[in-house]
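=== RUN LOG ===
request id: a7f3
mode: sequence -> structure
chains: 1
length: 148
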Amino acid sequence: MFLLQAAKGIRDDDAIRLPFADGKTSLIAGADVGAAAAAVLANPEPHIGKVYELTGPQSLTMAELAQEFSGALGRTIQYVNVPPQIWEAKLHEAQLPAHLIAHLITMGQLHRDNRYDRMTDSFQQLVGRAPISAAEFARRHAAAFRPG
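=== RESULT ===
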């Protein structure tokens, strides 16, 4: 989801625009979520009834995430803290489904409330390696962030 939300702003004007204020988050790459799901599906029995909270390798503010992307992409990426009402209007303009808009608005509020500032070792335990970093994510998806 982050790739879709952030790629255009990074590509067009080197900015991550989200209403997250200074809240920290421990983003995990979608590919890593897939790797964890594959590990569970390969041997489901020991996981029955368990809940895993998957997090990335570090909890960062969006400004810190922008610094990680800057280093990985070789240019300055800035975080722009968009007012929630402006972001919500942009979501409606994009004609996203109502349930997705509601979900994203809630996620924005939870980020501003710093509710995603947490770390677990669940991914490491399931997959046997650390989740990829924000910088590695940016490097792997550099083409999506490259100005066109």
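=== NOTES ===
The helical segments are 2-13, 30-42, 62-73, 84-93, 98-112, 122-127, 134-140, 142-145.
Strands lie at 15-18, 24-25, 60-61, 78-81.
=== END ===
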